Amino acid sequence: MSVRQAIWGEKQGAIEASLKEVDEDLFRYIRDFAYEEVLARPGLDLKTRELLAITALIALGSPKELATHLEGALRVGATEEEVRETILQSALFLGFPQALAAMKLFHKVLKGRDSAHPREG
């Protein structure tokens, strides 16, 4: 399984199409360098890399990309608690407004996952 498949899951096709629509060359840079070279390096597991990506995207104020990596972190094995703690930790260094916005987005991501995968009861 490629790194992109692991992080993007069933949304891979839609994400790739969206990126290609912006620019084919930029898509290839993102695919080949970011995902298949940097994120595939040894030394850190993919879960840790996704938690770091979450922190960086909070700092950048990139909600669309942040939502992708919030979902990606959960897909590659991060628990809801680990993602939540990552967001809380970011408040210390990045500010409370950024952390608050990220936490709201995380709750939306979780609601979307719950509606897509209803729990047995």
From TrEMBL:
InterPro entries in the record: 4CMD/NDH-1_regulator, AhpD-like, CMD-like
GO molecular function annotation: peroxiredoxin activity
Residues annotated as domain Carboxymuconolactone decarboxylase-like: 25-106
Domain of life of the source: Bacteria
Name of protein: 4-carboxymuconolactone decarboxylase
Pfam families: CMD
